[in-house]
């Protein structure tokens, strides 16, 4: 992991929980897990860190507004409205908003309850 990435901390990030679904009883073997939907807003110059993985927490992201730069594997990629990316056990990354307007994403993932 690059030293630059190791030092990244969150700033300018607002997370709003939109919904959860208890997966116990919905899908066999999913006791103790929930499907979670959140709206994440990253202010201009904001960072969603630190570097984190998605082991045991798969999901997907969809950008509603602004541009989010996803940093992973020593590279960065910008995503704008109408696109997104999957997050699986191989995802290790951090996000930032290099733009001048708030960036808004919807994140849906499976997490342990509590």
Largest sheet entry: 8 strands, antiparallel
The CATH topology comes to Jelly Rolls
List low-confidence stretches: none
Supply the helix-strand structural class: mainly beta
In CATH terms, what is the architecture?
Sandwich
Integer average pLDDT: 92
Quickly count the domains. Answer: 1
Order of helices and strands: HEEEEEEEE
Terminal CA distance reads 29 Å
CA-atom Rg in angstroms: 14 Å
The level 1 CATH classification is Mainly Beta
CATH superfamily: Jelly Rolls
Helix count equals 1
Give the proportion of residues in helices.
Answer: under 10%
Query: What overall geometry do the principal axes of the alpha carbons give?
Result: globular
Q: Determine the oligomeric state from the structure.
A: single chain
SS strand fraction: over 45%
* Count of β-strands: 8
Question: SSE layout and pairings?
Answer:
Layout: H1 3-6, E1 11-22, E2 33-53, E3 59-65, E4 68-72, E5 75-79, E6 84-87, E7 92-96, E8 103-112
Antiparallel strand pairs: 1-2, 2-7, 2-8, 3-6, 3-8, 4-5, 4-7
InterPro entries: Cupin_2, RmlC-like_jellyroll, RmlC_Cupin_sf
Protein name: Cupin domain-containing protein
Pfam families: Cupin_2
